[in-house]
Design goal:
alpha/beta; 8 strands; single chain
Length: 246
């Protein structure tokens, strides 16, 4: 476990595994670097292929700062934190990717000038990039009605996951205020080779295939599972490793 500071001074955590070419991987909403990338072997797979895997905990998640002050969550602060990590580590030649919210954060960094060699947007579709309000409303409903959902429902499963990772509902609610829509024309200007990777049953954030089609150097790949299951599948780490190692 290592720490760095966001541009506002917030203390943020990141993990590392392996040695070699740096790749920064950003986890999804409610999750952590440990859960997303370490627990199911994705980071180890990349490390075995010669990568230095750098995995931040987003603010309000994991071992990073979980302020309850709304001023700690301005629009696009997660992309700001991503740039702060790159600066902290002095990275200029690197790869960048993420799952779900991490995939969206990767896209925000790309449209704001990040220049990785290759990028990955996993668990993310075009609608989730163009219009963030839909998923934001879904999670706002969950976080403001905890304990009320029918067992087995999507909301109940999300709440169960939140409890499993020990998430802070107040801090996580503020994260929703950081979401920023990305115009289609901004996506069309990204010249980084990008792998869009989604589960075969995952339409939570819209169409991954449509997102890849908008990106000038986008490539779409499907793996087994829905939004919550795909991140646990070995195919996720294999697809990322194959794309980055090609």
């Amino acid at each position: 476990m290592h720490y760095f500071r966001g541009r506002d001074g917030a203390v943020l955590a990141y993990r590392e595994m392996g040695e070699g070419r740096p790749v920064v991987l950003i986890h999804g909403y409610f999750s952590t670097a440990l859960v997303n990338w370490v627990r199911y072997g994705h980071a180890a797979k990349l490390a075995a292929r010669g990568f230095r895997v750098i995995m931040p905990d987003l603010r309000a998640h994991g071992d990073s700062a979980k302020s309850h002050d709304a001023s700690a969550y301005p629009p696009d602060v997660l992309a700001d934190d991503g740039f702060a990590l790159l600066e902290h580590l002095g990275l200029t030649d690197y790869d960048l990717g993420g799952y779900s919210l991490g995939g969206r954060t990767t896209m925000r960094m790309l449209v704001r000038g990040a220049k990785p060699r290759r990028a990955i947007a996993a668990g993310m579709g075009l609608e989730g990039i163009l219009d963030t309000a839909g998923r934001g409303t879904h999670f706002r409903h969950i976080l403001t009605h905890l304990g009320t959902f029918q067992r087995g429902s999507a909301e109940w499963m999300a709440e169960a996951f939140l409890k499993t990772v020990g998430g802070d509902p107040v801090a996580l609610l503020h994260i929703l205020d950081t979401f920023v829509d990305t115009p289609r024309e901004a996506l069309a200007a990204i010249d980084t080779p990008t792998l869009v990777l989604t589960g075969a049953e995952d339409d939570d954030n819209g169409s991954g295939e449509a997102l890849a089609a908008v990106l000038p150097q986008g490539r779409f790949q499907e793996i087994p599972g829905n939004h919550m299951a795909a991140v646990t599948k070995p195919e996720l780490g294999t697809a990322i490793a194959d794309f980055l190692g090609a």
